[in-house]
Specification:
Order of helices and strands: EEHEHHEHEHEEEEH
Radius of gyration: 14 Å
Structural class: alpha/beta
Strand order of the largest sheet: 5-4-3-8-9
Number of helices: 6
Length: 152
C-alpha cells in the first residue's frame, strides 16, 4: 500500500553515500523531507540536489531532517554528492531495486527509477503532505517544501 497523507510512512533502512545506514527510525523526533530523485547527474535532478543544499539552513531552522533517495548505487550517489558539495544524506534504493520507492508508491516501472516525489513527515513519521512534480523535467519548488513544513 503506497504512502498516503495521514498514514505512517513506510519504514526504510538504506545506505548513505558514506556507507552509513540511515533509517526512518533515525529521523523520528523531527519533521522530515523524504525527497525521491530519479536521475542523478542530470540537469534537473542536480539543480534540485543543489537547491536543497543551498536551503539546508532553513530546513534545520524548521527543525526538519532532509534525505534524498535515488535508485542508483551508493557509489554513484557518493560521486554525485561529492561533485556538488552535498552534506545531507543521499540514500541508495538500488538493491533490492527500488523497494523503498515502491513502498512509497513512487517507483516508475517503465524506467526503473523513482518518480519526482517528496513525502513530508511529521515528528512521528506520519505523512502530512506529498509534493509531486508533473514531469521528470520539472523541479519541485523549495517554497512548496517550506510551506508544507510550516503547516506541521
Amino acid at each position: 500500500m503506497p504512502a498516503e497523507i495521514g498514514s505512517p510512512a513506510p519504514d526504510f533502512a538504506l545506505l548513505n553515500y558514506d556507507r552509513s545506514v540511515v533509517s526512518l527510525n533515525d529521523l523520528r523526533g523531527r519533521k522530515t523531507l523524504v525527497v525521491f530523485i530519479p536521475f542523478p547527474f542530470t540537469r534537473t535532478c542536480t539543480a534540485e540536489l543543489c537547491s536543497l543544499q543551498d536551503n539546508l539552513a532553513s530546513f534545520n531552522g524548521a527543525d526538519a531532517n532532509l534525505v534524498a533517495i535515488t535508485c542508483d548505487t551508493m557509489g554513484a550517489n557518493r560521486a554525485w554528492a561529492a561533485a556538488e558539495g552535498v552534506t545531507y544524506p543521499v540514500l541508495s534504493d538500488f538493491w533490492p531495486h527500488g523497494v523503498v520507492s515502491q513502498a512509497y508508491g513512487c517507483f516508475n516501472e517503465n524506467l526503473g527509477v523513482s518518480d519526482r516525489a517528496t513525502y513530508v513527515l511529521d515528528e512521528d513519521g506520519i505523512v502530512r503532505d506529498i509534493i509531486r512534480s508533473e514531469s521528470f523535467g520539472t523541479a519541485r519548488s523549495i517554497e512548496s517544501y517550506t510551506a508544507a513544513l510550516d503547516m506541521i
